[in-house]
């Protein structure tokens, strides 16, 4: 789905012209960039959060010549999907399933198999 | 910044009512979620792309106890920031709209 398709799908759902819809889409994503550029984070409930992560400087190598080159520290935009989105794309039932014990913590290593998730399918 | 701040920005910039702005912002999010749920990628130039990736099952470890535990195969959302987004967090002027 491209931005044009996103705009079309939204405009079909709500009573807004494509032109206005595109403006709203631009403002939403522009403001997320602006916020992170100012080192602020953006949290969207039910979707996820955008944050800036710092990458330290490191020594790289020019792959052609093998020369060492210093790669300066930099910042990168990072998106973490929220619980609802994670479960949605993974095809888990949103409700009715067993309570998932793993917290919203980053990169939780608590396997679903232990928290009584869906039965493992044979491959 | 949260959803409410974005809704206020949209209302201020477009002259739409708060109610209409909220409906629009929620619909943007829902439409992206629907696409990802179907396994469809969402590609927004300059901003970045959201993609659903399949992860193979692997043996993980509980970092607290050190105990090995199986991690089942799953699908996850991957976001790759666009060029403009990456440049903007490193000090380039924001020129999105």
Describe this structure as you would to a colleague.
The complex is a heterodimer of chains A (123) and B (97). Chain A is α+β, with helices and mostly antiparallel strands and 123 residues long. Chain A has a domain at 1-40. Helices cover 31% and strands 22% of the residues of chain A. Chain A has 3 helices and 5 strands; from the N terminus they run H-H-E-E-E-E-E-H. Chain A has helices spanning 3-13, 18-37, 83-89, and strands at 42-44, 48-55, 58-61, 68-71, 74-81. A 3-stranded antiparallel sheet of chain A has the order 1-2-5. In chain A, helix 1 (3-13) packs across helix 2. The two termini of chain A are 30 Å apart. The relative contact order of chain A is 0.09. With 97 residues, chain B is of the alpha+beta class. Chain B has a single domain (3-89), classed as HU Protein, Chain A. Helix content of chain B is 40%, strand content 28%. Chain B has 3 helices and 5 strands; from the N terminus they run ααβββββα. In chain B, strands 1-2-5 form a 3-stranded antiparallel sheet. A two-stranded antiparallel sheet of chain B has the order 3-4. The longest helix of chain B has 20 residues, at 18-37. The two termini of chain B are 19 Å apart. The model of chain B has no long low-confidence stretch (mean pLDDT 93). Chains A and B meet through helix 1, helix 2, strand 1, strand 5 and helix 3 of A and helix 1, helix 2, strand 1, strand 2 and strand 4 of B.
């Amino acid at each position: 789905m491209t931005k044009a398709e996103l705009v079309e799908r939204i405009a079909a759902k709500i009573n807004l012209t494509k032109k206005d819809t595109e403006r709203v889409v631009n403002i939403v994503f522009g403001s997320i960039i602006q916020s992170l550029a100012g080192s602020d984070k953006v949290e969207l409930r039910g979707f996820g959060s955008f944050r800036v992560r710092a990458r330290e400087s490191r020594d790289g190598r020019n792959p052609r010549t093998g020369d060492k080159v210093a790669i300066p520290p930099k910042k990168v935009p990072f998106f973490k999907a929220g619980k609802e989105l994670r479960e949605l794309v993974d095809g888990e039932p949103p409700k009715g399933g067993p309570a998932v014990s793993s917290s919203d913590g980053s990169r939780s290593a608590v396997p679903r198999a232990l928290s009584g998730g869906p039965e493992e399918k044979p491959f | 910044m949260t959803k409410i701040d974005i809704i206020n920005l949209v209302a201020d910039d477009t002259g739409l009512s708060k109610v209409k702005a909220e409906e629009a912002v929620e619909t943007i999010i829902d439409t992206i979620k629907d696409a990802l749920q179907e396994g469809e990628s969402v590609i927004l130039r300059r901003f970045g792309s959201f993609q659903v990736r399949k992860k193979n099952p692997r043996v993980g470890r509980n970092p607290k106890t050190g105990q090995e535990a199986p991690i089942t195969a799953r699908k996850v959302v991957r976001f790759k920031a666009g060029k403009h987004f990456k440049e903007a967090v490193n000090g380039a002027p924001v020129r999105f709209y």
